[in-house]
C-alpha cells in the first residue's frame, strides 16, 4: 500500500500501483490548483516533505530543474511514489470536491492496511 499524506490538512490518500500523486488525489475526491496535468506547466508543484518519487516520463528541465528536484520540489502530475510520501501544498489547502470518492478511497486504504497486517501476522 502506498499513501500520500498532505500537509497542512493531514489527509491520507491511498494510491494504486503506478498512480501519480495528482491522479491519486483526484481519484480520492480531492483537488487543488493545477494546470496542464501533463508535466508541461509546473503549476502542480508541491514540496516533497518525506519519501521518494519516480518520474516515469521525461520532464522538461525548464519545468522541473535539477535544483528543484534536489531541493524537494515534486511535480505531482508526473510523480509516482516509490513508497509512502508526505507532501506540502504551497499557499493553499486541499479541497474535497467529491466525498463519495473520498469514502471509496478510505475503504480501499482500510482494506490494504488489513491485508498488510495479515501478511505481517503470517510471517
Ligand atoms: S499540472 Fe502542469 S506540470 Fe503538473
Describe what this molecule looks like in 3D.
This protein has one domain: Ubiquitin-like (UB roll). A hairpin with a 3-residue loop joins strand 1 and strand 2. It has a 5-stranded mixed sheet with strand order 2-1-8-4-6. It has a two-stranded antiparallel sheet with strand order 3-9. A two-stranded antiparallel ribbon has the order 5-7. With 123 residues, the protein is α+β, with helices and mostly antiparallel strands. The chain is 29% helix and 28% strand. The longest helix is centred in the last third of the chain and has 24 residues. Bound molecules: FE2/S2 (inorganic) cluster (FES). The site of FE2/S2 (inorganic) cluster has 13 residues, from loops.
The description of the largest β-sheet is: 5 strands, mixed
Strand content: 25-35%
CATH topology, by name, is: Ubiquitin-like (UB roll)
Give the number of domains.
1
Strand arrangement across the biggest beta sheet:
2-1-8-4-6
Uncertain regions: pLDDT < 50 for 5+ in a row?
A: none
N to C succession of SSEs: EEHEEEHEEEEH
**What is the CA–CA distance across the termini?**
17 Å
What's the oligomerization state?
single chain
Which structural category fits the helices and strands? alpha+beta
- Considering the protein shown, what is the CATH homologous superfamily? Beta-grasp domain
What small ligands are held by the chains?
A: FE2/S2 (inorganic) cluster
CATH architectural name = Roll
Radius of gyration: 15 Å
Q: Look at the structure and give the mean pLDDT.
A: 95
**Please, how many helices?**
3
CATH first level: which class?
Alpha Beta
Overall form: globular
E-strand count: 9
Question: Helical residue percent?
Answer: 25-40%
